[in-house]
Specification:
The protein has one domain: Rossmann fold. It has seven helices and ten strands. Strand 1 and strand 2 form a beta hairpin. The longest helix has 18 residues. The two termini are 23 Å apart. The model has no long low-confidence stretch (mean pLDDT 91).
């Protein structure tokens, strides 16, 4: 069963008196436990695709099924519930809360979205801190961490609620070369251990080389010959 399936997916924005066709009649499928990249120049539509998969934006037309749910039909409240229960996010600027420690940043979704009991939260967070190699940094705030360490915390936060889908928008853009490769390796390790699907929007050739499936977009359309496996 496909984890994600898009058919004739279209997103049109209104900018003044002009219709902007950000995504045009796009079809794609993504299977469970995949490592997938949407690539293309700025304005190609790749971030728009991620936003629609993540229920941050609604398609103008077409269907988009995520984990068996047609998310194109969800209203704002239903989209928020689905997003909070099923999808993790990783951002290029980390989006950690400055006043919270690494531990507390990872804990945040379990309190604000899913309301896990304290003992279950502590067990899960401790496991993930160990998995991302941050146990000894648990009580440091973001301003006390390097860029690579911040992104490790962000990976743990994305996975903490046992999500099977993580959307990563340019997750290596603010990292140096070595840190970027370490984060990519960490995400592949998490995929292998937890069966999580990672879907990227990226310009980074390092992620493109590691992706098992790449969809190239230009002017909102999928390019011919994309969607193939890369070894």
């Amino acid at each position: 069963m496909n984890l994600i399936c898009a058919e004739k997916l279209d997103k049109t924005y209104r900018a003044g008196d002009v219709d902007v066709h950000a995504v045009q009649s796009v079809d794609f499928v993504i299977e469970p436990a995949s490592f997938v990249a949407f690539v293309g120049p700025s304005g190609s539509g790749k971030s728009t695709v991620l936003n629609m998969i993540g229920c941050l934006d609604r398609p103008t037309s077409g269907t988009l099924t995520v984990m068996g749910t047609d998310v194109s039909t969800l209203d704002r409240n239903a989209s928020a519930r689905f997003r909070g229960q099923n999808i993790g996010f990783i951002f290029q600027d980390f989006n950690l809360i400055p006043v919270l420690t690494a531990y507390e940043n990872i804990e945040y979704p379990l309190i604000m979205v899913q309301e896990w009991p304290a003992a279950a939260r502590a067990k899960r967070i401790t496991e993930l801190l160990a998995a991302v190699g941050m146990s000894d940094q648990a009580h440091k705030r973001p301003d006390q961490l390097s860029g690579g360490q911040k992104q490790r915390v962000a990976v743990a936060r994305a996975l903490v609620a046992n999500t099977k889908l993580v959307l990563a928008d340019e997750p290596t853009a603010n990292l140096d070369h070595d840190s970027a490769y370490r984060i990519i390796g960490l995400m592949k390790k998490m995929r292998d251990e937890f069966g999580t699907t990672f879907v990227f929007s990226t310009h980074d050739p390092k992620i493109m080389r590691e992706a098992e499936l790449t969809y190239a977009l230009e002017d909102g359309r999928l390019q011919l010959g994309t969607g193939g496996n890369h070894v």
